[in-house]
Queue: 2 jobs
Job 1
Amino acid sequence: MIFDVSVALTWILFLALFPVSFYWLRRAWRIVVRRDFSEVALKRGESPPNPARFAPYAAAINLVGAGVLIAAIIGVVTGEYAYETWSAMAGSTLWFKVLADFILARHAHPVRSRKRAAPAGQ
C-alpha cells in the first residue's frame, strides 16, 4: 500500500467516525435518560418553546445516526465492508443527520406572522 492523499483522507474519515458516533450517542443519552432538552431543535442557539415535544424525534435521529456509524466501524474492523460501502454509509449518514436536525429545528420554531397594527383612530 502506497501512502498518498487518498489513503490519508480514508484514515481521517474512518477515525472521525469514533468521536462523531460518541457525540451522537451522548446527545441521545442526555435526551432520553437525563431528560436534558437543552440541545433539542436549536435554532440560532435558542430552544423551541416546548423542547420536550421534539425530544423523542431528536433522540431517534441521534440514535439512528450513531447506530449506522457504529455498524460502519464494526464492518471496517472486521473486514466485512469494502471501502465504497462503509464510506457511502458514513457519508450519507452524516448528511442525513445534519439535514434531519435542520428540518427538526425549523419545524420546532414556527414562523410567526406579524400582524400590522391598526392605524390610529379606527
Note: The longest helix spans residues 5-32.
Job 2
Amino acid sequence: MFLQYYFALGESDTAAVRRVRETVRYFLGCREVSTAESEHGFLIVPGHPVDHGALADLMAEAVRNVGRATEVPDRHLITPMLGFDFACAWDKATAPVCPRCRTPLDGWDEEDWMYGAEPFETCGSCEYTALAGDWDLTNASFAKTNCGVALLDWPNLWEYAREVHEHALGLIGRRARYLCGAVG
C-alpha cells in the first residue's frame, strides 16, 4: 500500500479547514489518463469535474474524526485530516535528511516531536540547524500536523506528476510538506 501525505506543519487555525477542503477538491478533480506520450505510461490531469457530494461527505467525516489519530487512512483514496497529529510507519523509512548536504539526521528520535514541541536539529556534517520539519521528511517515519490530506494508492505524484504535486503543496498551507512511502 503506497501513501502520500500533503500537510502543513503547525497549521491548526480556522483557515486550515478551508485549505484542506480546497486540497481535497483539487485531488477529486484529478484523473489518471493513459497516454502513449507519457514516459511512465500515465499522466495525472487536474481540472476535471468534482463530485461535490463526495467532497461534502469526506469533509464531514474529517470533522467527525477531529481529535482521533489515524495512522493509515485505509477507507478512502483521498482522506482529509483535521485537528489531530499523525504518525506513519513505513517500510524502509529513513531519518529526516539535511536539505543542505543530504546527510540523514544522526540519532533521530521521533518521540521527541511526537510527545512535545517540534525540536531543533543540527546536521553532524554541515551544521545546518533548523526545526525538524524543515529537514527533508519525504521518507521519514513520522511527521506531526493538524492539517493534511492523505492519498492512498495514487501514483507517486512527486515523481510522475510534478505540477500536480507542487500545486497541492501550494494549497495545503504555509509550511507545506510531503511525506510518502509504503506501509508494511
Note: The longest strand covers residues 2-8.
